């Protein structure tokens, strides 16, 4: 009976793993900021469940805080008092040092952890005045995570829309910008090389501008944005989306505007568009494979290889094994020698077409 009125905190664990360290640090944080702890008959089970659920959420998002911060989602102040976070370190160090597949944040997993934690703070003990400050910090944590969940859901919906679309999401007709820059009175030294190169070029002779731009994305953007040259030029910029970046071409045009030709510009744009890599959606690929599979019964890998060759689709296969097989098949087709494919089962004396049942 006397124990029911004493403040209770879960016992700390022996630190065999970094997760145990996080668990102990959370309990230390509770003791520091919530001196009165839990009380009551079921305080032990209630406290342990709450700490377990809070630690589970913190542990899961621990390696991904930089990603969350990039989305303007910050860790509530009280959790910055955790020992490793005070040192700008992570608890889940194995995520960064281990040679294993890095698990990305899953919307379903985060939702499950958040709901589990919410079920604890919805209990009567969490509404007591002594818990108000700490629970507010937990609610701020949950709110930040929910914002990221909404972001993931929005991204997933967009990707599903793209994957099941019968039309390519990127095409030069929608994502292309072409504009002309007139002669500049003053030229910065970093543009002299490009200016001298353009002087030797004929009008309407286009080339890839990236050969002269800085490698850094921000520096490249500023370089193209402020482009003073001693000759008038036309800039072609096509935004491909995501990590593919922007395609940049440039060509010299006559100084006098009445000597310029829209026909020549159209010819250059058409030539560039023709050579741009093409990226089709999953649904477009499925439609094509389904249609051509009706004519001839061939293996999926052969069908996919034919699809890539015929359409020029620059998308890559996600599956590593399939990608390797397709690459070998492409080499076989280039060499025009199907005899290089050997059935290795013959080395073991196998002469049939099917294996016996086990």
**Considering DSSP H and I runs of 4 or more, what fraction of the residues is helical?**
40-55%
Principal-axis shape: extended
Order of strands in the sheet with most strands: 1-3-4-2
Could you give a short account of the major beta sheet? 4 strands, antiparallel
Mean pLDDT: 80
Number of DSSP E strands: 4
Tell me the strand percentage band: 5-15%
Low-confidence stretches: none
Radius of gyration: 31 Å
- Helix-strand topology string: HHHHHHHHEHEHEEHHHH
How many helical stretches? Answer: 14
Structural class assignment: alpha+beta
N→C terminal distance:
66 Å
Q: How many distinct domains?
A: 3
Characterise the protein shown here:
- The structure is a single chain.
- The chain is an alpha+beta fold and 358 residues long.
- The protein has three domains: 3-163, no CATH class; 172-275, no CATH class; 282-347, no CATH class.
- It is built from 14 helices and four strands.
- It has helices at 18-33, 43-61, 65-70, 83-86, 94-97, 107-121, 132-163, 172-175, 192-199, 217-225, 262-275, 282-292, 300-311, 320-335, and strands at residues 176-181, 207-208, 233-239, 246-252.
- Strands 1-3-4-2 form a four-stranded antiparallel sheet.
- The chain is extended.
